[in-house]
């Protein structure tokens, strides 16, 4: 009979998938320094927040060589900024930005790499800590969007001319930073139109499991956002939920509701290996067809 045979096959396939070795992901040429490519600059700063009172954080600002103060620049915000701005890390964002901007595969843009807040008046001497990270990133509310729009963007805007158009703003993060990025655009699609989420924590850390039904309910009036998702079959499975299943639910909901989305599902774990390897492609895809006003 069909059903017993189908169930047996499904069990075999499921068992096999559970034992697949994680693929090896490698950086491509867009993640390496290329001769003759103009290099942007990176400046480091410290910020004490009023929206998250009692916190202090580091952030970095990337400015492309092609920045023209006569024209508002596109901007892209990164959570866990230290992981993205590091040229020897998994993402190497300043290098990727230089290469893609030089090839006109993304517009010249300011990069804002923001760390989560640390409680206290001074940065710790013993390295980076993230004691306010979950509050800021996993909370399903508009507070972090307010933090960006009322504090960080105006502060960087004092020195650089930034666009105020949602079409020219993107946001990116990994894990809790991934759901944070989606939350910002979901809450404020008038301010951010482009989302990149790597191994996003769309689970029950602070209620993030609610997004698939919310997305489905928006089918008649989808929000004007574009979403890039990535996850791997070896991602987390713990008391908060199953990350691979949660991201597949997100992708299915986005497809059902008719959103402009892309989902890259590999065999990686809760790390930046696959994400770092496909990071240039994610930026190319999210910024495709952008035209300055």
Protein model, in words:
The structure is a single chain. Residues 1-19 have low confidence and may be disordered. With 293 residues, the chain is an alpha/beta fold. The protein is globular and about 45 Å long. The protein is 34% helix and 21% strand. Strands 1, 2, 3, 4, 5, 6, 7, 8 and 11 form a 9-stranded mixed β-sheet that branches. Strands 9-10 form a two-stranded antiparallel sheet.
- What general outline do the C-alpha atoms trace? globular
Uncertain segments are 1-19
Structural class, by secondary structure, is alpha/beta
Give the CATH level 1 class. Answer: Alpha Beta
Tally of discrete structural domains: 1
The percentage of residues in β strands lies in 15-25%
Alpha-carbon Rg, integer: 19 Å
The portion of residues assigned to helices is 25-40%
> Superfamily at the CATH H level?
Alpha/Beta hydrolase fold, catalytic domain
Helix tally equals: 9
The number of E-state strands comes to 11
Instruction: Characterize the main sheet.
Output: 9 strands, mixed
CATH architecture: 3-Layer(aba) Sandwich
Distance between the termini: 61 Å
According to CATH, what is the topology? Rossmann fold
Order of helices and strands: HEEEHHEEHHEHEHEEEHEH
Topology, please?
Layout (H helix, E strand, L loop, with lengths): L1 H17 L22 E9 L5 E9 L10 E6 L1 H5 L7 H10 L6 E6 L3 E2 L13 H6 L4 H15 L11 E6 L1 H12 L6 E5 L12 H7 L8 E7 L4 E2 L2 E2 H14 L3 E7 L6 H14 L7
